[in-house]
Design goal:
Blueprint lengths: L11 H4 L15 H11 L3 H14 L4 H9 L4 H21 L16 H16 L3 H14 L4 H15 L2 H14 L4 H24 L5
Helix pairs in contact: 2-3, 3-4, 4-5, 4-6, 5-6, 6-7, 7-8, 8-9, 8-10, 9-10
Length: 213
């Protein structure tokens, strides 16, 4: 999701406005791989991560495997590495399936879930590592590709943009979150916080322009 990769992820310009974007569904993973992953995840905790790693090593294009490996990572950096590889493998698979940088990749299609787990995981891991710009880019990609949980995605975007000091953008995102889930308490708290910050900033700016008598 880095900008340095030449815009290989989806963009709002590519999706376009005023028309329904097309959908892309990834091919279903081989049944043998799915069974091997299920068996690996059923292993005792001390053995589970290595068992999943062996499944991924047998087919590095297996997106569900990368998603599982990222979830079992020992720290945020390892999780970031696994999810990022899975995300880029997923982009390759999407292109092979006819995706041209625009359109939905829905969670409701089971074959898409490994890719979407990697993308969500990449966003969370980048956030944990303090890579705010990359986390924002990843969450924006989630918002464009999948409509399964827009309230949470827009809330996380708002929180990150607030951390960057982009209050206006953060406010727009938190309002989108509340449009989807009007009773989302964390989003309400964030909106109040943003309003208070804006008011305090305006007051401070007004005081700074005052003239002594």
């Amino acid at each position: 999701m880095h900008a340095e990769h030449g815009g290989e992820g989806p963009t709002s310009q590519q999706v376009g406005l005023g028309r329904r974007p097309p959908e892309t569904e990834l091919p279903t993973a081989p049944a043998a791989l799915a069974r091997a992953l299920a068996q690996a995840l059923a292993q005792p905790v001390r053995r589970r991560r290595q068992a999943v790693a062996e499944v991924v090593a047998s087919d590095p294009a297996f997106l569900d495997g990368w998603a599982a490996l990222g979830t079992l990572a020992r720290d945020p950096l390892e999780a970031y590495a696994c999810f990022r590889v899975g995300y880029h493998r997923g982009l390759d698979a999407l292109r092979a399936a006819g995706w041209r940088g625009s359109g939905l990749v829905r969670w409701s299609r089971p074959a898409n879930r490994g890719f979407l787990r990697c993308l969500h995981g990449l966003a969370r891991a980048a956030e944990q590592l303090g890579a705010i710009d990359e986390a924002v880019t990843a969450y924006r990609a989630v918002a464009l590709l999948d409509e399964s949980d827009p309230a949470e995605v827009h809330y996380r975007l708002a929180r990150l943009l607030s951390q960057k000091g982009n209050r206006d953008e953060a406010r727009r995102e938190v309002l989108k979150s509340l449009e989807e889930a009007p009773r989302f308490l964390d989003a309400h708290r964030l909106l109040l916080e943003l309003v208070e910050r804006s008011e305090n900033h305006a007051k401070a700016a007004g005081d700074g322009h005052g003239h002594p008598h």
